[in-house]
Amino acid sequence: MITLNGSSLTIDQVKRVLYDEEKAMIDKKSMERVMKSRFAVEDIVATHKITYGINTGFGKFSDVEIDKKDVHALQLHLIRSHACGIGDPFPEKVSRAMILLRLNALLKGYSGIRPLLAERLLVMLNEKIHPVIPTQGSLGASGDLAPLSHLALVLIGEGEVWKNGKPENAAASWKALGLEPIKLQAKEGLALINGTQAMTAMGAINWIEAEQLAIQSEMIAAMTMEGLHGVMDAFHPAVHEARGYPQQMAVAERMRGILHDSRLTTRQGERRVQDAYSLRCIPQVHGASWQVLDYVKEKLEIEFNAATDNPLIFDDGETVISGGNFHGQPIAFAMDFLKVAVAELANISERRIERLVNPQLSDGLPAFLSPQPGLQSGAMIMQYAAASLVSENKTLAHPASVDSIPSSANQEDHVSMGTIGARHAYMMIQNTRRVLAIEAICAMQAVDYRGVLGMSTATKSSYDEWRALIPPIIEDRQFSKDIERLSEYLSKGRTGEAVV
User: Fold this and answer.
1) What is the pLDDT of residues 14-63, one digit of tens each?
2) Which CATH number fits the domain that encloses residue 18?
3) What domain range is 190 assigned to?
4) Which of 52, 426, 463, 489 is catalytic?
5) Is residue 419 in a domain?
6) Could you tell me where the DSSP H helices lie in 20-65?
């Protein structure tokens, strides 16, 4: 059971809630803070103190006063009008993450919601009432207004939720639990949608999957080292200590550990003095991607526990400030940085694939790992496919955060595009996993030629597991099925541990 208090949620806890479907509870003191901020909102309504989003319109309409009798209708109109997301829906786990993260942010006690709203979000999380949320339509400033509005629709019984993989009307879910949909009161609609939880939820899943890929990429690269008689001296600890990056040293240490008892790798001068960069520089390149993962994790965990709506209520209501914590720039930068790191895992993997299939570079392996070079093409077009995915990643890696377009009649004149960056990062992760699957297929074929009895204990364990899915290439076949099968299998290593 995860206890939510608005200030201590970690990526590991998010992982447990999303993938292990662990339930959550609300910290009692957090609910006391929520109640105090709610009293402040009710006082603002009662005294008609002009405050943004409580008794004014939104965005460019912030100078329009709202009559006291209409403050509830204001919130309902807000949710309905802003629920204009378009495109395919987010994966269901992303909508689950949005519920978790929005609830945690509201528990900081700066948002002015009723405790009932927090409790209902908790019900959604624990009862798996996951909103159907379109992926497109957010600018990433003023928060993720469109996606979070689709989440809020579920609370008022007007949206759709996932039921056995298909959309169902949200009202049916509440009825099944014996609950009535929420009737939003002053500020509650704004508090629900004025945040960065779409990009941050997508970002959390991106990080979890990217970390998993980074670990798996080392095992796959190690198998390629064996297939190409790679030179182990490049991983000597002195080399990496001389540079000093902890992540680089850690990759080199793991590579030494994976390959410590291999009889297929070589030493400097045995077959060649040094390898090409895609082998020799595995610690430097993969290590740099790990540096990015560390950076992104830090930013995500800050955002998990951030108050990101507007206005924020401080000092038991004595201070109410309109600010801009909904602006997604920190996460936009983090997602764009993650895209570069993921792209490089694919880039260097594709170069290793080329070395495995190119007879001029493969140290005696059959051309394209073909069982009958010429008559059968073997892995020739698998390298094409990897190159295509790598090239697509390069276009997706263009930073979304350098773009901005004004909205709301130039009141909202600079936006982050962070949700676009997070979506593109997710697409790149899927592409990169497929590239790594292709490398694994080629590396397994290479060690078949070299002699699997010479493999290290660790790589042989992975080889056996993957060979149960992907048979050796003894005759050309539809390799797309192999790629997708292994890619899907790799995706199941979701705890962040190597599939070995």
Assistant:
1) 999 999 999 999 999 999 999 999 998 888 888 888 888 788 877 777 77
2) 1.10.275.10
3) 2-195
4) 52
5) yes
6) 28-47
